[in-house]
Amino acid sequence: MKEKIIAKASELFLKLGFKSVTMDDIAGEMCISKKTIYKYFCNKEVLIEESTSMVHSQVHEIMDTIIAKNYNAIHENFEIREMFRDMFKNNIDTSPIYQLKKHYPEIYQNILSIEIDQCTQCFKDNIDKGIREGLYRSDLNVEVYVKFYYTLIFHINENTVSESEAQRIELEALEYHTRAMATEKGVEELEKQLKRIKN
Question: Is 53-198 assigned to CATH 1.10.357.10?
Fold first, then answer.
């Protein structure tokens, strides 16, 4: 039952927002009493913590699945971006990350510290892969480019209220990041990916 509550709460939080969803809403959606929810979670904050942790794990599992498909480095980044777009396509217009930071800053900081470590590794692996494939320049300072990119992405998510706007700017950031690193072969692949997502 605990896992079912976390799953339903996660779905509602992402769709309607962390602030607006109440324990009554979750109980109503699940046709259970609010008392049942409080049996597992002493308050809404604990439920939000568990929910964000579950979503975080799911995101990284899907990312691992995409990486395992062995696309080239540039294609891989576009696939990961599309995965995020699909995950959040049913939510309200307000970005879940922006909401979390605004209304539950402690939970946000906890998630952020884990996320930065995992994203840093993910970005680093992608750049190393792109260099091996000849898509990114071999003279890159990988650590600096990793830092540039996650600073850019986290800044967009933290400061953009609208989810659709955040996704639009993130695509611009991905193009910017890729062009900054790309070889001639990489630019060709980038143009191919941009054309693919526009169709």
Answer: yes
